[in-house]
Amino acid sequence: MQPIDTDHLLDRATAAARRRTPDAELRGLRRLEGGVSSLTFASTLVGDREDKPIVLKVAPAGLAPVRNRDVLRQVQALRAVGRLPGFPVPDVLFSDNGNPPEEPPLFAMTLCPGESYEPLLDVSDNPPDASTVAERARAATRALARLQALTPHALGLGGEPVAAVDDELERWRRLFETVDPDIAPGQEKLHARLVERVPRSLAPRLLHGDYRLANMLFEGPELAAVIDWEIWSVGDPRSDLAWMLMHLEPATFSTRNVRPPTGKLGPCYRAVMTSCRSMPPCGEQQEPTSGPWRRWGRTSPGSSGSATTRRPRPSP
Fold first, then answer.
1. DSSP code per residue over the chain
2. Reading across the β-sheet that carries 39-46, which strands appear in turn?
3. In the predicted model, is pLDDT for residue 276 greater than 70?
4. Are 283 and 153 in contact (CB under 8 A)?
5. Distance between terminal CA atoms of the chain?
6. Angle separating helix axes 290-298 and 238-247, nearest 10 degrees
7. How do the domains of the chain map onto residue ranges?
8. 30 alpha carbon, distance to own chain's centre
9. What CA–CA distance (Å, rounded) separates 23 from 17?
10. What are the residues whose beta carbons fall under 8 Å from the beta carbon of 160, sequence distance 6 or more?
11. Per CATH, is 6-110 categorized as 3.30.200.20?
C-alpha cells in the first residue's frame, strides 16, 4: 500500500464537500485504528450550519478499488438502508470518485457517537455490565429482523448479484489456500464435510457480511449505528443471523467475559419479523431458521477460532 499525502487528501475532501455546501471546509485529519481494506480518518466539517465531526473513508492508493477496497460501494449500501426505521447507519455526506489507482476514491459520513464492544472477544478495564450486553444483543437482533423484512428490490438493490451458500463456502476455501496452514489446520477436510451438507438457500436479502456487536456503536443499551460495510452483499439472510449468534455463543470462544443470552434472541427476531409482515413493502417473507444453520456455520471455515484474537479496548 502506497503512503497517502494527507494534505492533498484534505484538499480533495474539502473540494468534494464544497460541491454540496459552497463554504464547507474540512479541518484536521486524524487516522483511526481498525480496518485493513481502506484508510479511515476523523475530521471536522465546518460551514454546514454547525461544525460536524465526520469520518473519511479512503481506498488505498496504488491499488484498484475493487471488492472490499471499493469504498464507493459502501456508499451504495449506506444510502439504501439510510431511511430504514429501526436500523441506524451513518449518513453519507459527500463522495469523490478520484482517479484510481493513483488518486483513490473517498467518501465522508457522520461520526456517530457510541461504544463498540464485542463481549466475548474484547478486553476492557471498564466493560458494559451483563444487562447492557444483553439488551445490546437484543437491539442488534431486532434491527437485523427489520433489515431482513425487506427484499433487495425494495431497498433499491434489486440488480445486485446473489451469492449462494455454496459460493460463500468456496470463497473461504480460496481464502485459506492463500494463508499459512497453521492458521486453519484441517480446513480441507472440514470443507469437504460442509460441502456434503450445504443448506438450501432462502430468498435473498441484503447482508452486512460481518454483522456482530463489534461493528455497531451503542450509547448504553441503545443501538446508535451499524458500521463497517466493506463486504456487504446480497444472499441468504441466515448468514448475518448465524454470524452474530456465533460471536455471542460461549462455546465458540474460550473467555471469561460477559456471556450474552443467545437463547433469548430468537423471540426478538421473530416478533419483529412478524410485525414487519404488515408493513409494506416487505415483499416475499421467509423467516430464517437459525438453529441448524448456526451449527453448520460454527464449523465452517469462516468461523475458525484459530484466526480470531481477543482485542484490547481502552476504557471509555
1. -----HHHHHHHHHHHHHTTSTT-EEEEEEEPP--SSSEEEEEEEESSSS-EEEEEEEPPTTS---GGG-HHHHHHHHHHHTT-TT---PPEEEEE--BTTTB--EEEEE----B---TTTEEESSPPPHHHHHHHHHHHHHHHHHHHTS-TTTTT-TTSPEEPHHHHHHHHHHHHTTS-GGGSTTHHHHHHHHHTTPPPPPSPEEE-SS-SGGGEEEETTEEEEE---TT-EEE-THHHHHHHHHHT-TTTS---S----GGGHHHHHHHHHHHHTTSSS--S-----HHHHHHHHHTSGGG-GGG---EEE---
2. 25-31, 39-46, 52-58, 106-110, 92-96
3. no
4. yes
5. 31
6. 60
7. 6-110, 122-313
8. 22
9. 9
10. 152, 233, 234
11. yes
CA distance 90 to 215: 12
Rounded CA gap, 104 and 197, in Å? 42
The residue type at 210: D
The C-alpha cell at 42 is 476523523
**Domain 122-313 class, CATH top level:** alpha beta
Q: Which residues pair with 171 in a beta bridge?
A: none
Query: How does pLDDT run across 148-166, given as a tens digit for each residue?
Result: 999 999 999 999 999 888 8
pTM of the model: 0.83
* The three cell numbers locating residue 269: 427476531
Give the tens place of pLDDT for each residue, 173-215. 887 787 777 877 888 898 899 899 888 889 999 999 999 999 9
Beta-carbon neighbour count of residue 205 at 10 Å?
Answer: 27
Which amino acid is located at 135 in the chain? E
Asked if 206 and 232 count as a contact pair (C-beta separation under 8 A), the reply is: yes
